[in-house]
Design brief:
Structural class: alpha/beta
CATH superfamily: Vaccinia Virus protein VP39
Distance between the termini: 48 Å
Helix content: 25-40%
GO molecular function, one term: methyltransferase activity
Largest sheet: 7 strands, mixed
Low-confidence stretches: none
Pfam families: Methyltransf_24
Keywords: Methyltransferase, Transferase
Protein name: Class I SAM-dependent methyltransferase
CATH architecture: 3-Layer(aba) Sandwich
Shape: globular
InterPro entries: SAM-dependent_MTases_sf (IPR029063)
Amino acid sequence: MNITKKISGISQTLQRVLKRPVSELLMVQNDVLAMQRLQPLYSEFIPWTSSALRPAAVELLLNDITINDRRVIVEFGSGVSTFFIAALLQSRRGHLFSVEHDPKWASIVRKELERRGLLDHVTLIKAPLETSPFGTQQGDWHNEPVVYTWYDTAVLEQKLPPKGIDLVVVDGPPAFKDQYRFARFPALPYIADRLASCCTIVLDDIDREGEQTVVAKWEEQTSFRFQVLTSRGNIAVSHTGRAFNI
């Protein structure tokens, strides 16, 4: 390849990059920085799938746990965040309750946690999805049909702590299909009575219309107020009580 073609290729690449929104470039930059900061917790490969929280979002969770001393942590949707939170809890007081609907994925997560010696810090809860008691089949926000699903509450009642939850991560159930776009709405109505007076709620995938509507409805129906952090992992975050910035 001659020098002219090389310069042309570099020029085209720069043009594509410069056309991307600034928020997207910041998101990528923050992810790269977060990966560097997360590295001390793991010295080997972690299965980071396309459904996982972004690195910057994981870093924010670990900041909250460390700085604001979160000890009773619940996440809906197991994955890369499970591994990092469990690794952090090795040197801290606290416990993670991780809820997962897919038994095959839950088995993979369990094996990885066990192999890494982290199971003592995690209660992995396998809870199948069922029709949610927190919505209607036809939907009360839009005219088109919407399916409301949530984790089996009978399982959750047995496994989740009844009070004192100070960090909630909502990255499940899956909500990428249009008919399931409000699947994560039940998280806050269900967990609200179990929350500590000082706590953090994090919702992933806030760039999607479904999650944006979910946050709007949460704010309409509760006293929680959310901040959208697109460049810090594509999440929405709410704090109650006194807490340091994360």
